[in-house]
Amino acid sequence: MAAAIPVKGKPGVFYIPALGQQFKAQELTEDSYFDSVFQPSGTIALGTKLQFFDAAQTKNFQHTNITTVRRIPAQVEFSLTRLGVQIAQAVGNSLTTDSDILKVAYTGALYFALSKQQIAQGPIWKYPGGYGIVGQSNRSGTGIVNNGVGSPGAVPPLVVNQPVAEKDDLNGYVRYDDATWITSYVGPVTDGITVLTLNLHGIQKIAVSR
Q1: Based on the structure, what is the number of domains in the chain?
Q2: How confident is the model at residue 195 (pLDDT cuts 50, 70, 90)?
């Protein structure tokens, strides 16, 4: 579904299907809301749950742009067009190892809902981030690994864009569950801290001061 449709006979005016309204171009911006969680190094206990959007006040803009717990800003109308999980390739002065990124992507699962409406559920690799550093490295015994391709265009759009209002609860988390159907399954053990960012991308109506 197109996120924004030009209105015939009204230059500079677009119809946003998810919001059911027409807006002038200067009222709209394409942007993201995002939040990050972290997992300490070592064994990740099966059943561990990392909740997004719950501790926004303690973070800075490299890890979140949400200032109210589980809410987008007041008076903002947002059309969610796609979402993805970015696994940080570096945390502070430490580089995240390739093996840690792979373990997180293939043993963690994402759940995201708007209030009680489920939007996404499945393994992290199913929801590529679309960002990050790509290329090659000459560092010994390592490479550059990402959750998916480092291009926003590689992130699958939602089949139906979702309206998000300030009253909607952003309920997102990553969980590491057991896999009893796999014989002798062992949960992940990471070399370092891993940071995961849930990115909600879309089109929003903003207050116009010009």
Answers
A1: 1
A2: very high
Sheet of 13-16: strand order equals 5-6, 13-16, 21-24
Whole-model pTM: value is: 0.89
Residue 23 has pLDDT above 90, yes or no: no
Domain annotation covers residue 11:
no
Judged against a pLDDT cut of 70, whether residue 141 lies above it is answered with no
Report the DSSP beta bridge partners of residue 173. 51, 111
Could you tell me which residues are beta bridge partners of residue 129? none
Query: Domain range spanning residue 195?
Result: 27-205
What's the pLDDT tens digit per position in 52-101? 999 767 899 999 999 999 999 888 889 999 999 999 999 999 989 989 99
Question: Tell me, what amino acid is at 163?
Answer: P
- Give me Rg for the CA atoms of the chain: 19
Considering the domain boundaries, does residue 8 fall inside one? no
Structure tokens at 100: 């840690």
**The CATH number of the domain where 100 resides is what?**
2.60.120
pLDDT by residue (tens digit) across 98-113? 899 999 999 999 999 9
CB within 8 Å of 19: residues ≥ 6 apart = 77, 79, 163, 205
Phi-psi region of 115 (alpha: psi -120 to 50; beta: other; left: phi over 0): left
The label of the residue with tokens 């717990």 reads 69
> CB burial class (10 A; 0-12, 13-18, 19+) of residue 76?
middle
Amino acid, res. 39: Q
CB neighbourhood size of 176 (10 A)? 20
